[in-house]
Amino acid sequence: MTAAAMARQIVAYVTANPHSSFFQLVEHLGEPAKGDRVIEIRPNLCLWIDVSNLFIDALNSVLNKEVKLEPANRLTYLVDGCLLPLPIPRRAQSSYAKPYWAPATLSINEVYRTAGGAQ
Question: Does the pTM of the predicted model rise above 0.85?
Answer without folding.
Answer: yes
